[in-house]
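Figure S7 source data.
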Amino acid sequence: MSYTSDVLELVKKRNPAEPEFHQAVSEVLESLDPVLSKHPEYEENCILERLCEPERVLMFRVPWVDDKGKFQVNRGFRIEFCSAIGPYKGGLRFHPTVYLGILKFLAFEQVFKNSLTTLPMGGGKGGSDFDPKGKSDNEVMSFCQSFMTELSRHIGANTDVPAGDIGVGGREIGFMFGQYKRLRNEFTGVLTGKALNWGGSLIRPEATGYGAVYFAQNMLATRDDSMEGKVCTVSGSGNVAQYTIEKVNELGGKCVSLSDSAGSIFDPDGIDADKLAYVMDLKNVQRGRIKEYADKFKGVQYLEGKRPWNIECDCAFPSATQNEISKADAESLVKNGCKVVSEGANMPTEPDGVEVFLEKGILYGPGKAANAGGVAVSGLEMAQNAQHTNWTREEVDGRLQDIMKAIHTQAYDAAQEYGSPGNYVLGANIAGFIKIADAMLDQGLV
Ligand code: NDP
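Tokens for the predicted NDP complex:
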């Protein structure tokens, strides 16, 4: 047995029935053997045992009242996973599938992702099994206020700074910020993803999608290629998907798909700026289903209950949720000519799908590197809040591009140095890990 397999066994034993967490830990540990054999001090100091155990897990009751006056009870969580290099930072997810295992996987990934951004941020994640779908604004506000009433005891601008994720956008951040301010009587940067007129940053809504495209651009540049003329498939139709399409269009590519949990649309003509404006209204204002896109525009196919991975493309941007690309989907993408996969979502590819991408030598950017643009601009929002200032769109976008380039370089160089050139999974895991492990060594047994 090796150190990494011992630790993985321990994680499985200690965290039963949390398969997503096991998957995320296993994917990272599998990459680390070369660095652990070079640095025995990591094992001597139990770095992996400590890194795989969250510093703190909070779980709480969220009671609220629906529009009919009926009492409802949900479960709230915050996982404060690792603060070795900065305050806990990571999003809140509101979705009926949320439970400890999902949030632990997301928080664990976040630790490495945040390390790669070059900014001083630790890793955390939180959320609730509350489903915002079909709820009125009033019900969402009632829930958010109750959720923040408990969460406010545990977070703070220098302690833990949550942001959005699935089911948590500008509306939810607003309600939670309002309640935090009221309870604490302070106006601080305790959440990111705020609106511009009360402490938000330009480019934060765009950052994850834009960042995933910048990461693809950086990967393509290693093969003297660009996004110009590329046909792209995109899954999801929320925040990440929308701004992925905006940036692909700007760089001369064409996106031909979108999806939600009910099915996908295939638009061979491409989702241009006007169609994207329709999607933004449909999803962010009307809160409708993506099927309506196929009813609205000519020549569009609706693929009921299907993901968009059988459509021919040069690049794929999975931007919906975890484990949305199976081995068969990965094979289908490669067979249909896909040469680039840049993950906007967290852990969207199942492990044997990742194997397919690596074996075939396509440019595969794992989520913790490719979608780090969102948290990076959250870090820039924190910096602006701390300085009581606002940067211009150009300034923030310029910094985002520099950060995505730096993440790419770190992952690319580490893969090279540790004997697997072009393997961004190994490179991102190793580069993210070393920074945290060294900080933990410096700070002693805590
Ligand atoms: P949104 O809530 O804005 O959109 C999520 C989209 O994914 C919706 O179209 C939703 O469809 C679809 N989706 C969600 N769950 C499922 C499911 N189980 N099966 C099929 N489709 C599903 O979320 P975001 O765009 O913010 O997040 C998308 C992904 O990107 C997530 O993996 C998230 O963790 C990741 N991410 C987000 C960041 C951010 O800054 N927002 C930062 C880094 C990563 P439906 O409406 O039917 O549920």
